[in-house]
Amino acid sequence: MDTPFSEGFVNAFAVIGETATLVDAGNPGRKSFNQLKSQLKEHGLTFKDFDSIVLTHMHTDHSGGVMYIQEEADLPVYVHELAEPVVTGGINEFNRINDFFNNFLTQCGADSSEHQHVRRYKEEIWKNVHYLKDEDDVHIGGVPFKVTYVPGHSQTDILLWNQEDGTALVGDHIIPELSVNAFIEPPPPGQMERPKTLLQYRESLNRVKTLPLKNCYSGHGKPFEQHIELIEKRLAEHDKRSRQIYEILASGSKNIYEICLVMYPRLRDKTIFLGLSQIQGHLDLMELRGEVEKENIESVMIYKLV
Questions:
Q1: Residues in contact with 106: Cβ distance below 8 Å, sequence separation at least 6, in sequence order
Q2: Model-level pTM?
Q3: How far apart are CA 45 and CA 36, in angstroms?
Q4: pLDDT tens per residue, the chain (306 residues)?
Q5: Are 224 and 233 within 8 A, CB to CB?
Q6: Which of 229, 233, 248, 277 is 20 to 30 A from 85, comparing alpha carbons?
């Protein structure tokens, strides 16, 4: 299905065996829903043919169609347990998340009125939601798939793999055509410290390196094998970006927005967040390695080399 994001299109999978299971649900809105419905029809399928919907994560290009699908077929939804605050939290959770991102942009030295996407609350009610945790089994196409929790790209990312043949539905954890952004996200309700998403992502990648995966199906792009080589490539890219930031900071202290202007000069307006998120993750990594330190000056985080 088409997507407004840089990936170009997003995948959903009809996994057919003893039963049929839909993995991911496309973008929000009727256009994406009708596109998915039409493609299923070409293969002789309707939503009522499925036993459930399993979501690899909660980003809207993968979960946006759930409400529309449930209007046509009373399908249970399986998603990671950290999705529950978003699924059940309503406008209060929506506002909490918005406040976090506004504060994050301020800490970066950016302008939330200029660089923050305007998000409007739209109530969505999902029915029959089941929450998954690490090492659970969930049946897909009538076959048990192991749930491996792989936070980083989002806090709800799961990788689903068949222990018999190594088939894996990897969501956006690994995309062969591009390097995945470990997006900055707010902490769970009741917690104060944001997750350090790139550190999480690297830990998840190293964990997935140990899994005997074979045919991998990603949330974007084509199926792939040789996941270990791709993971090693992604880890090396993190090191390369960290070196770029180190070189930028060699000329003096900077906030994240100032680093972004040098590192990603083509990003403008609302797309600035992509660069800020990327840079914050790498600064977390560099801070862990003892390469940088930060200081809060008038609510803006200033980074300098150690």
A1: 112, 299, 300
A2: 0.94
A3: 11
A4: 666 655 568 999 999 999 999 999 999 989 999 999 999 999 999 999 999 999 999 999 999 999 999 999 999 999 999 999 999 999 999 999 999 999 999 999 998 877 777 778 888 899 999 999 999 999 999 999 999 999 999 999 999 999 999 999 999 999 999 999 999 999 999 999 999 999 999 999 999 999 999 999 999 999 999 999 999 999 999 999 999 999 999 999 999 999 999 999 999 888 899 999 999 999 999 999 999 999 999 999 999 999
A5: no
A6: 277
Residue of 3, 46, 55, 66 whose CA lies nearest to 24: 55
Structure-block tokens of residue 178:
């591009």
Rounded to whole angstroms, what are the CA distances from 208 to 55, 131, 196, 217, 219? Answer: 19, 21, 19, 14, 16
Q: At what angle do helices 256-263 and 272-288 cross, to 10 degrees?
A: 110
- Locate tokens 């104060």: which residue? 192
